[in-house]
Amino acid sequence: MTTSQTYATHRQLPLLYIGCGVALLMQAGYLLWGAVRVPSCGAWLGVVAGCALVVVWFRARRNAQIMQDRIIRLEMQVRLRLVLPAERHGEIAKLTLPQLVALRFAADAELPVLVGRVIAGELTSNDAIKQAVREWQPDHLRV
Predict the structure, then answer these.
(1) What's CA 94's distance to the chain center, in Å?
(2) Is the pLDDT of residue 2 over 60?
(3) DSSP secondary structure string, the chain?
């Protein structure tokens, strides 16, 4: 984990997770190959179990990411209510989850301007929003 974070360095690649997934996929493929070569009830049960492990591997991370996104949405709604003037609170509901996730890297001081640019359609992609952030707030507590 680095102490500073920028648009260029904020993405994470969970190598251990990916490596485990590759190993599970290889094992499931090997079990399938064995079941085709020498069919038996036990061999096919192994294929089913191998495929089930791959599904569990994928869903474990995906469920954690969904929960993280829900927390970020709530966090950003609270932050925006504190940072935006009361007459702009209606804009918060217009922001999509991906936009809120991209905006979380911005410092409180620049959030009103960035939200205005997003609502105006000036910043249309998540990458454009992140690249527009001048004072990057690192997020090291991600799934």
Answers:
(1) 20
(2) no
(3) --S---TTT-----HHHHHHHHHHHHHHHHHHHHHHHS--HHHHHHHHHHHHHHHHHHHHHHHHHHHHHHHHHHHHHHHHHHHS-GGGGGGGGGS-HHHHHHHTTB-GGGHHHHHHHHHTTS--SHHHHHHH-SSB-------
CB atoms within 10 A of CB 116: 14
pLDDT tens column, 12-69: 777 899 999 999 999 999 999 999 999 999 999 999 999 999 999 999 999 999 999 9
Query: For the chain, what percentages of helix, strand and coil (3-state, to nearest 5) are there?
Result: 70, 0, 30
Integer Cα distance of 105 and 17 in angstroms: 25
Residue 3 binned pLDDT confidence (cut-offs 50, 70, 90): low
Rounded Cα distance, 10 and 12, in Å? 6
The pTM (predicted TM-score) of the whole model is 0.77
User: Treating both helix axes as pointing N-terminal to C-terminal, what angle do 41-83 and 15-37 enclose, rounded to 10 degrees?
Assistant: 160
Amino acid at position 137, single letter: Q
